[in-house]
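Re-run with default settings, no changes from the original entry. Doing this only to confirm the output is reproducible before filing.
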Amino acid sequence: MNKVYPSIEAAVADIKDGSSVMIGGFGGAGAPIELIDALIERHRASGSPGSLTVINNNAGNGAVGIAAMIYAGMIAKMVCSFPRSSDPKAFTERYLAGKIELELVPQGTLAERIRSAGAGIPAFYTPTSYGTQLAEGKPVAEFDGRHYVQERWLKADVALIKAEIADRKGNLTYNKAARNFAPLMAMAAATTIVQARRIVEPGDIDPEHVVTPGIFVDRLIEVADARQEEVLLREGAKQ
């Protein structure tokens, strides 16, 4: 099955208003800038998609990537572990104005909630956040004399991720730390859309090197010269 789409615009064309969207990246490492930009351009042209719930480690930086989505008014809620950055103005201004909602999730818990969704585990217990505001309203249980907070799995309608090499069937490799949340998000989303630096033929990737199997990937687009968030920030770029 060939999962390569004819254009990046076609790959994101049916993301709907109100969708939950996981976006890979740890800061700029692994951020799918071109997929994000295509989604922003579609919103500017048609007003859709909007009212999105975006799940990422961060809440945007400067005026590119997720921050550009916030400036465009596309995001209703952020689910993240670190809503600060070197330039968090986009999120901070809207959050303080009551225009965007925040669900703060400890980083390890965020990863495990996403992983659990991909593994079909509806809930798990963790000691993280016990006794804090983050645990309010959540079930608590005691195991071996220690208190644990129940956390629910975290699914999404769509995942946007960045890979290093993909074959046409969707098997993926990543560039070192750019892997971060991407394999987990690919498993937890109903539709996974991938931009890859290079797309090769099936069999060209050593099976031992495949990180994300193609069964978890729905759409591919090749972006040979992907832009890097940190470079764009240094250049003062705006989407």
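The radius of gyration is 18 Å. Residues 107-154 form one domain.
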